Structures
1.
Amino acid sequence: PVPNDFLSLLPANPVRKICAKRPRHSDGSSAILTWLNDVANTLLNGTGHLKCHDTGAELLGSAARNSLDMAAWNYQACTELILEPLTSDGYGFYTPGDDQVASVKKACRQRFGVEPRPDWMPISTGRSDYSSSTNIIFSNGEKDPWRVGSPGPEKLSPTVVSIMIKGAAHHEDLRFDPPPSAANPAVADAKAREFQQIGR
């Protein structure tokens, strides 16, 4: 809801901003292509410094040597969080393919010299069965595409809480509070529930 530079420079409500400028089909293919370039610039080139867009720069198989932050995340994705088969609902920009895990494994071996264990996360967490676990909070933003990987309520014990935050983005409840004019009351409510749960 507010401008940020968490991973890249983004305006407030970037998707809303992008969609507000969407051309009509009758505007012609040139206008549509110009708009698609603006979409890419908004999401990948907020500073305006890039001359081309590497949409795969954050992906493990990318030849790009990205920032230390992304390298650390990529290493964790190789060793602990093989998310591809777990968090896709099949409707994302990069839809899952039959060779997806194999290509991630190959990239992890090439980049870090490690062998991923795609079954490690489900096994280490009881295959997402938290009925015997205690004191865990799962918070998911309604706009977070990774929320599909969260366990369902039927697999939670009474002290494991799942909070769906209406209108919220990925880990928005863990960020600093925005100015009052941009605040989402659902995020404030989720934070209050989380503090209450932690204080038990």
2.
Amino acid sequence: HTQHTQHAQDEQKYTFTSRVQDLAVSSDGCRLIVVASDKSIKIIDLRTKRELNCLPESDPVTSICASRVSNQLLVSVSHQAPVIRLWDLNERRIVQRYKGHHQSRFVVRCAFGGPAESFVISGSEDSQIYIWNRLFGSLLGVLQGHAGTVNAVAWPTYTHTHT
């Protein structure tokens, strides 16, 4: 259950019944996605200031990453065999899964990458970075070279400027 109070004209204060683990904003800027420690993924409509339906995750969610180009969300789930799930926020369903990385003790974050976010990348507790095809879920490569757990990854985005 989420409560909010309006302090200023555009400022909102939300109160959650459990600890917030992570949050993201949808690509259209209209939804706030919040991971709570009770395993729920809450979606708040920022225009109406109301909580929408939760995404039904049954396993502990460690982190999320919202797409910048579509209404999709990467959800890192830590259980016996860690998995990253790609959720379609409009359809409220899982459209792909990515497996192979290691996660048990630490928060390991994932991200979208490449042209039109065609890749999913993730750190791993085995000191490597994993890269999958976003559409097909196939593992494309594993990058070595780190001495310890890779907790976070980012794929740089460039804007082309013509001079």
3.
Amino acid sequence: TAGETFQKKMAARQAIALLFLLVAALSVSSSDAAFCHGKPGPGSPNLSGIWRGEPRFVRSVANGTLYEVGQGDDRIWVAHVFGDNFYDMGSASASLLKDEITKFMDSVWIHLEAQVQTADFLKELPAWLTKIIANEGLAAGLDATYEITKDYTPAWVEEEQRGMAAAAGIDYKLIRRIHLIGELTKGRCSMFGAWGSATADGGLLQL
């Protein structure tokens, strides 16, 4: 109807306006917010021994098995997923860790909204405006980032995320947005990178 069309146009204009506000705020302090400032240093040596025990079986689903390794505070999950396509593998990982993934995604989004409200590049704005940007502008900014980068992102990334979303009962866009935070802020932090002869297919693996 005409009323619905008008509402959609207004919502789109609001999203665009909020996105411009967010981009402008980011550009003002990009040198402070967009990049990591830590430098390599010797630090304290990691004297923890290498855990050589056998992985402990936790549970399994179609196309996936969950194991636990380590002890005490050093325990971590190891999910082995497989299948004919990445949707099935994403579905398997979310089926194995549904509660953990749901809790993680919700808590991370809450944290990101709080960070936007208190970030240096927004501290000069009134509280009501930072709240709007946190609730509406951040999502709009991440959706715009998706549109800009999707042609350069392998199709399997979206397939896997959609499989995770379906199995965990989470909004696909929430998963997609959280994975695009680093792209939006142009974060360049990494702890590990392997490529060329160090990987099975010669591609880049980055942590």
4.
Amino acid sequence: MSDVRAKKSGLSADIQKKLDAKYNVDQEKQCREWIEAVLGESLPDQEVGKNHFQSCLKDGQILCRLINALSPSPLISKINTQTMAFKQMENIEKFLNACKKFGLQDGDLFQTADLYECQNMSQVILSIFALSSVAQKNGYEGACIGTKISTENKRNFTDEQLRQGETVIGLQMGSHKGASQAGMNMGKTRAIMD
């Protein structure tokens, strides 16, 4: 949690507890290993935990180098190395915009405050997993984490095969050897008395 913000209370505290409970250390370890494999260098803070992972990524430089390493041509031309807060948040914003250009959807991405103020680190991890999946789809051949995104598998059927398919009655049509659910009872019926 950032030192700048006041302590949360009430509903905000309950929501933050739920967000903290969603955080998965095993997924963090996978993200750390993947980032290190792609960049070819170790992350600065090797301790595992939400706050340690946030401190590694907070300035946005590692994320910017990560997206540049995954894309064929660099998506971020200038990475800020200054330690001022707005420059670090600008790096995170550049990373998020580059992710959109790379092919990630808005729902896959986190907000700048989620990372910079350690508000929702589980969403940051999910974004890194989504980035890996999209990188694999875009032709990156290195290490990957997460699920593989499906690709188009177009099929070409002959006219004869299409005609044969028209003769088959699917079970969704409602006819299966005359069977129906009419008169079917499940358990004891409810008796309503006047």
